[in-house]
Amino acid sequence: MDAIRDIEVVVFDVLGTLVDEPSGLRAAIREAVPASDEAHVDELLALWQRYGEGQQQRIGRGDRAYANTSVIDAEAAQLVAARAGFTDLPTVARLATAGQRLPAWDDSLAGIEQLSRHFPVLGLSNAAHTALLRLNTHAGLRWHQAVSAEAVHAYKPAPEVYQLAVDTAGCAPDRVLMVAAHAWDLRGAQAKGMRTAYVHRPIGDPPTSRDTFDWRFDGLRELVTVLMAT
Fold first, then answer.
1. What is the pTM of this model?
2. Is the Cβ–Cβ distance between 9 and 169 less than 8 Å?
3. Cβ burial, residue 170 (10 Å; 0-12/13-18/19+)
4. Which of 98, 109, 111, 213 has a CA positioned 20 to 30 A from the CA of residue 136?
5. Could you read off the pLDDT of 182-194 as tens digits, one per residue?
6. Is the dihedral of CA 3, 7, 9, 14 positive or negative?
């Protein structure tokens, strides 16, 4: 595979790309509802995910004023509690912070550490400022800088979020590489002129035959190998 040329800054999506969001949420739901079987936990997880995605889409359409992920997660936790039939306030409150306790994929920490020796490495996440801080700490993610979309009161794939990354990088968009496991995320970055690299994850949104991303990788180790060859 050809080396990746002329890249000055590497920007990573966080949720799904570097941390396993469904596994972390599932663990938190199982902790909150320990008597539930796996089918019920999966049902509650799907409820949480549908709600979160739906609210972010409503905000993107202008149907709801901006609310950060901490607010939306608290609302999702209330929905899950109502569906599961528990009302214990400390349990609901802990569940609401489930997005701050997500495990990193096996190759994430080493990959970021290796790349950070040679490139400025940024995280770009829809997670709220404080949630992102705690998520980074829990997962062990060590950035040069982690940027929250909350700064522009929008959610990816809104163009202003990618512009935030480019402005933070301080160089031309075509010298910024956006890395994500979600094709929808990379399309947004591509529309702002950023270079794009898809990294496969079991829970990601894979590219279609119509997508023309610059690079595609089976995992982060492969991306690191190619980037380090520049």
1. 0.95
2. yes
3. exposed
4. 213
5. 999 999 999 999 9
6. negative
